[in-house]
């Protein structure tokens, strides 16, 4: 199941659940925002972002700032399904470059993004209340 579709507002709770569950399953990621707060963040950005989902209810989602060419979120319930690649292929359509931030401890994500042509361009401490060091990665056609 890799059928991507644009998210509707009805998908927002499921997207928040995917991200929230990832936080719960990731030992190095502290819980800073509740599921409800995550839902609020997604809802507040909804009109300014391209949000794509896979599944009904959503099992994976990606949020892209179309003006900045920045991937703000990419979360999948299951790895190895081809969902992340499908999302990145969609994000690359019609663009010459993309950027994203990933957490420094997230080696698996970094390997995946590198396979998809992204390269590290810097590291930074996140804006509080976030706590985990972030790595900027960029892709150019």
UniProtKB/TrEMBL annotation:
Keywords: Ribonucleoprotein, Ribosomal protein
GO molecular function: acyltransferase activity, transferring groups other than amino-acyl groups
SUPFAM superfamilies (UniProt xref): Acyl-CoA N-acyltransferases (Nat)
Domain of life according to the entry: Bacteria
Domain N-acetyltransferase: 2-138
Pfam families in UniProt: Acetyltransf_1 (PF00583)
GO CC terms, sorted: ribosome
PROSITE patterns: GNAT (PS51186)
InterPro entries found in the cross-reference section: Acyl_CoA_acyltransferase, GNAT_dom
Name of the protein: N-acetyltransferase
Organism of derivation: Pseudooceanicola antarcticus
Lineage: Bacteria, Pseudomonadati, Pseudomonadota, Alphaproteobacteria, Rhodobacterales
């Amino acid at each position: 199941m890799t059928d991507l579709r644009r998210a509707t507002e009805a998908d927002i709770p499921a997207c928040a659940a995917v991200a929230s569950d990832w936080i719960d399953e990731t030992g190095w990621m502290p819980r800073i925002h509740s599921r409800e707060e995550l839902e609020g963040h997604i809802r507040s950005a909804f009109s300014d972002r391209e949000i794509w989902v896979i599944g009904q209810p959503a099992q994976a989602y990606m949020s892209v700032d179309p003006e900045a060419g920045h991937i703000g979120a990419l979360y999948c319930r299951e790895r190895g399904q081809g969902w992340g690649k499908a999302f990145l292929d969609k994000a690359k359509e019609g663009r010459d470059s993309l950027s994203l931030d990933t957490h420094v401890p997230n080696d698996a994500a970094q390997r995946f993004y590198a396979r998809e042509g992204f390269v590290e361009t810097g590291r930074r401490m996140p804006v509080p209340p976030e706590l985990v060091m972030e790595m900027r990665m960029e892709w150019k056609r």
